[in-house]
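Why do we bother with holo predictions? Because pocket geometry can differ from the apo form. Keep that in mind while you read this record for arginine.
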Amino acid sequence: MVKKIVLAYSGGLDTSVAIKWLAEEYSSSVITVTVNLGQFEDLEEIGKRAYKTGAIKHYSIDALDEFSTDFIAPEIASNGLYEGKYPLATALARPLIAKKMVEVAKKEGADMVAHGSTGKGNDQVRFDVTIKALAPNIKVIAPVREWDMNRSMEIEYAKKKEIPVSIKKSEFSIDENLWGRSAESGRLEDPMTEPPEEAFGWTKSPLDAPDKPAYIDLEFKGGLPVAMNGKAMKLSSLITALNRLAGEHGIGRIDHIEDRLVGIKSREVYEAPAASVILEAHRDLEKLTLPKSILNFKAIVDSTWARLIYEGLWVDPLRQSLEAFTMSTQRYVNGSVRIKLYKGGMRVVGRSSKNSLYLSNLATYGTGSTFDQKAAIGFIEIWGLQARTAKLIMDGQ
Ligand code: ARG
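The structure, written out:
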């Protein structure tokens, strides 16, 4: 019986060449899988291309809502930013694609799966680790890691084998899904070069953004946005709408020097309009509704969670333990946040919550304060006691 390989297929050059290469190199039939995570691609067209290139079967799987509820939701609750800047769009998507590949492989009785990642990046780690954890007996192949072809050799190979690829002119390598768009290579490889306008696809240049600011009211329930400007929406639709709106105002451009898992520092350019707005609003609402003890501890949990996702360890049981803590805090994170968008800049300008810990009778400098200012004197005396004593003795005075 001919062996079967399940290949994660994007429709691009690498994975198109991979269909033919895998079939020949491993004397196998290739089954392709494309997962819809909100990328702006013609999925029907990709399916047709897979068959034309020699796939024996193609799966087009819509996982947009699963991506939103099982991956983006914990990301929002965890204020997930790798190295304080990257909202993890690409990193979050990989384990879900891996999960879908494994599902298809099991259904089809395939004992090999393949993906188009290179040997220099993080994505290979995310795919390999997740697949091996979900299906220890399935072999993972990353053709690009094995075949030693550069881009022009791949184009040559595609011509020779009559592979129908549209060689895109773009100098940038793009990955996109509902949560964001990642761009690298080309001119972006010089960290001193300002990203040219052509590197962006989702956001207007702030110069061309509307001259009037826009206000967005985001309503959160249990730590997740549930309505925008008074209109209730499911998470995936809210993110789609907000990407468009905030993108119009030039919001969400991120230029980041990043530490890859394999030890390389790289320059990444991201666009994440909705993610930027939602994460900013969520963090702000947490500050209103959670005590500082939780906020301080949660910051450690949040950054640990983000690093775990970035480093391809979505399957590590630590993730679920961290999320269990995080979710226990989110039941208080309810309320509304007002954000002002203006020419590439974004600011939270108002917030309210029935769980607010902000009490005006304590905070006010006006009339009606119930805070006993005289009590502060004794508090400060004891609060600073050890620091004062230690300083005097240790400085030898
Ligand atoms: N550096 C990011 C990450 O590891 C994004 C990589 C995106 N890939 C691309 N082809 N642009 O998550």
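The two ends are 87 Å apart (CA to CA).
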